[in-house]
Amino acid sequence: METKEYDLIELKNIAKWLINNGLNYNIWLFNGEMGAGKTTLINELAHQMGVLNPTSSPTYSIVNEYETSNGLIYHLDLFRLKDISEAIDAGIEEILFSNSICFIEWPEIILPLIDNKYLEINISNIGESRKIQLIKHG
Predict the structure, then answer these.
(1) How confident is the model at residue 58 (pLDDT cuts 50, 70, 90)?
(2) Does the pTM exceed 0.85?
(3) How confident is the model at residue 56 (pLDDT cuts 50, 70, 90)?
(4) Is pLDDT of 99 > 90?
(5) Alpha helix (H) ranges present in the chain?
(6) CATH number of domain containing 59
(7) Is 136 part of a structural domain of the chain?
(8) Mutual orientation of helices 38-48 and 11-21 as an angle, nearest 10°?
């Protein structure tokens, strides 16, 4: 487990740090309260991983798909899902097993679908800055 503090000025460096630590992981779970900066960080990660098109929060669509020269990146926001059956009906299971990078906000509901290899990224607010905790599973 590693922990760092950062602010928006350091966002690019934090994203680079996460990418360097997450090279062998396809599933990235983002935890944090509303407004902690999960989507902002995911957008920066996507751009640094080669997404050229604009990125946005998939709050209402549940899943955004982005193309890179290395394959697809999925950004999932599961905040509105009520239970795991809704996730399965939405095709989340296929996305998880696609071997593509999956950035997942509000992942609690699908934890039973995830195997033992994933990154857990916990973000919390500390005044004007953020505290990020990285835990590697598997």
Answers:
(1) confident
(2) yes
(3) confident
(4) yes
(5) 11-21, 38-48, 84-89, 92-96
(6) 3.40.50.300
(7) no
(8) 70
**Residue 21 — φ and ψ, nearest 5°?**
-85, -15
d(CA 105, CA 18): 16
CB atoms near residue 87 (< 10 Å): 22
Among residues of the chain, what percentage have pLDDT more than 90? 85
Q: Are 102 and 96 in contact (CB under 8 A)?
A: yes
d(CA 88, CA 70): 26
Type and span of the H or E element at 63: strand 63-68
Closest CA to 81 of 109, 57, 104: 109
Rounded-to-integer distance, Cα 129 and Cα 80, Å: 27
Task: Count structural domains, the chain.
Answer: 1
